[in-house]
Amino acid sequence: MSQRNEKQLSILIPVYNQVCVELVNRLHEQAVNLGIDFEILVADDGSTDPSCIEANSAIDNLSNCRFLRQPENMGRAAIRNYLARESSLAYLLYIDSDMSIISPDFLSRYLSCLPATVVDGGVVIKATNDNQKQLLRYRYEKSEELNHIATERQKRPYQHLHTANLLIERQLMLQHPFCERIRHYGYEDVLLGKTLQRHHVPIVHIDNPVGFCTFESNADFVAKTEEGLRTLCEFRNELRGYSRLLTLVQGIHIPAILWLIRLWHRLFGATEKRNLCGSRPLLSLYQLYRLGYYLTLLKHREG
């Protein structure tokens, strides 16, 4: 690959009901200062909030930037595939719209890794105020922080692939697109990792994180968790070996234990959910609720 191609970067940001102008400004400033061939494509996936759409429209005013509006929601996988097709440069950098750029050399660190085909930079958890530290999403992500370090991710590189901050060669992405059968929240990046492993594509994990600084309300996070668990249940056969929850469930070989967990969820799941959605959520209850919710879904699907 030529040096010129190694300095080409399409930055791809899917957005839904979120303003990401500051994120784009930070990325645009770094790309301009590096003097590389670049473009920033922001695809609005059928947002319903007119104020977000109006604010993000300003992105069109920046050089090499485009704001692409979709009239209807395509889904997390399809919008990312759409961005890849719309891109024109050799490497794609996917960044989630609710992430923050926290390093002044964020883009140059990625460029120094080329010509690697897939590079995952990771995330770092940052609360902007004390109120955020009480939120269930923050507490959960903080408890997982050690797993975000590159040396840990590299131990199971395909299972730790995340599109919040991912560099990938464009031709590779077009050859192995995200699975568009996944329309709802969760696991489209996990299935991509499985596909890359099947095709023996190496993944490099580095510590070049974006900031995870925006945390939804407890009720919204629980709803998102439930949506992700429904996705996991639907695609459980394909995700086997790529989900810690599936591995845990598969390791429970005594039917009576599974029955007891489902019974507990039927009796106390609503109480657990009230706690998780309230002002003092217990992280230990969150893990128990996830397990009970999943096993209940599984029982209904399998009969």
Automatic annotation (TrEMBL):
Gene3D superfamilies listed in its UniProt record: Spore Coat Polysaccharide Biosynthesis Protein SpsA, Chain A (3.90.550.10)
Domain Glycosyltransferase 2-like, chain residue ranges per copy: 10-138
Protein's UniProt keywords contain Lipid metabolism: no
Keywords of this entry: Transferase
Lineage top rank: taxon: Bacteria
Gene Ontology molecular function: transferase activity
Classification via InterPro entries: Glyco_trans_2-like, Glycosyltransf_2, Nucleotide-diphossugar_trans
Entry annotated with the keyword Transferase: yes
Protein name from the UniProt record: Glycosyl transferase
